[in-house]
Amino acid sequence: DQQVKQNSPSLSVQEGRISILNCDYTNSMFDYFLWYKKYPAEGPTFLISISSIKDKNEDGRFTVFLNKSAKHLSLHIVPSQPGDSAVYFCAASEINGQNFVFGPGTRLSVLP
Amino acid sequence: EAQVTQNPRYLITVTGKKLTVTCSQNMNHEYMSWYRQDPGLGLRQIYYSMNVEVTDKGDVPEGYKVSRKEKRNFPLILESPSPNQTSLYFCASMRSPPGYEQYFGPGTRLTVT
Q: Which pairs from B71-74 meet CB under 8 Å and 24+ separation?
């Protein structure tokens, strides 16, 4: 059973609009959450993270929101740009930060 | 340039023929890890290493071996590959956990026939 779920395999958004990518988890011991972006034929690259003691973290156009009671986090991209088109993975780790669990990914397409 | 390198990038082999995928990082990171990516399953952790001579199993370690004799290198060994190990493999490194992001290599696409 997947501990980290991304229920939308794909998402299409118009350039300039907001992209919202969602992630749900089942393990209440997860303490640290990350988002990675992956382009074809490349390895994933880190985007943004959030600790369980926070409910929001912002970095430029990217904001991650964490709702611990709902075991849900989301990544907001505002405004979306064509270069944001990629697969986005949500990941989580427990407090020791050693073992990481990734979701299946959401493919974002930003249309010009 | 800070990077994680993997070799080979592509490999086609036959069932049972031992192979090694190398991974090296130049960032002096203590932590290194191997993942496999399969459609619909995302990245699944195979093994990780907290430092030299310290390795531990991830979520899908069966059929794989690793070693960490030097800080910069973390090879993945398939003693007897099988077709269900056909996958895209990524090596990653980061500073000592917790709370840091991983840097990933470019991936190795392995096909076992």
A: B71/B28, B71/B29, B71/B30, B72/B24, B72/B25, B72/B26, B72/B28, B73/B22, B73/B23, B73/B24, B74/B23, B74/B24, B74/B25, B74/B32, B74/B33, B74/B34, B74/B49
